Amino acid sequence: MFNNIKISQTTEEIILTISIIADIDEILEELDIKLIKLKDFYQTSTIPMRITGKLFTDSEIEKIKEKINAEIPVEIKFDSVSESLRTSCN
Q: What is the pTM of this model?
């Protein structure tokens, strides 16, 4: 089932919230589908993308960045541990 990635938008960024229980293979598979819609959006936008929710290893971050940047030339930021903890405490 493809419910591991929620996409939302602010005026400053696109936010991809990743389920903390999803594994990297599920995330990459779902990204293939979500990137089709995001690619259309990014034809007219240049706002950065932020990945939040799940914490990733360095190699997982690289896999996700490569997958997204193969389709969309966009700046991608990942939440750090401290940012994730701060968000969950509010």
A: 0.85
